[in-house]
Amino acid sequence: MAISAKSAQEFVPIREIQNDTVIMKDGSLRALIICSSINFALKSEDEKTAVLGQFQNFLNSLDFSIQISMQSRRLDIKPYIELLAQKEDVQTNDLMKVQLHEYMNFIKELTTKINIMEKSFFVVVPYIPASLSIKKGGMLSFGKKETFTEKNVSFVEHKSQLDERVSFVTQGIQGTGVKAQRLDTEALIELYYTTFNPGDTQKPAKTT
């Protein structure tokens, strides 16, 4: 029995990314907010109580769903090594040159023995038009397949609704002491590219 091969793109639920917004194939929209981390263990008991109280109030104020997602991937040390190599080339002090070289060797050896991980924290904010009956989800969710056309969906109007949600979520997160910023189009493309191509360290080409 012959099995028809499907392209990888058929399994990607994203139609396109534009205006800092992810447009899913089902017509729903996503925005991603990248968040900093805080060292909770170093805070006093009063500070911990205040942070938890602010976060609880933020969650209770939501009338729509969000997804909190964490990405953990091995840190690409190559750009840092290349930067050190450039500094070594222009270094005129022989002692500093030797120390830079030894430091580069140390970093290279260390990263071969230990996986240095980089963690990123995101809040996924969705907007699902009322005309769509789909499963709610996050960065990689699938829903009922519907055609996204200007005849039945106003992108500008729906993006405006999404923008209001993003603003509300951003303010709520910042109220806990965590820095939060919406990812722009280029950052979204890079994030999803590396998500679907985890072994590829090259950045995707910019789209126009």
Please tell me about this protein's structure.
With 208 residues, the chain is an alpha+beta fold. It has five helices and six strands, in the order E-E-E-H-E-H-H-E-H-E-H. The chain has two domains: 10-72 and 119-196, no CATH class; 78-113, no CATH class. Strands 1, 2, 3, 4, 5 and 6 form a six-stranded antiparallel beta sheet that branches. A hairpin with a 2-residue loop joins strand 1 and strand 2 (21-24). The relative contact order is 0.22.
**Quick one: overall form?**
extended
N to C succession of SSEs: EEEHEHHEHEH
Q: Roughly what is the average pLDDT, rounded to an integer? A: 81
Number-wise, the strands total: 6
Task: Kindly give the count of domains.
Answer: 2
Task: Return the structural class.
Answer: alpha+beta
Helix content: 25-40%
User: Low-confidence segments, ≥5 residues, pLDDT <50?
Assistant: 133-138, 140-153
The whole-angstrom Rg is 22 Å
Report on the biggest sheet.
6 strands, antiparallel
In terms of DSSP E residues, the strand content is: 15-25%
**Number of separate helices:** 5
Distance separating the two termini:
42 Å
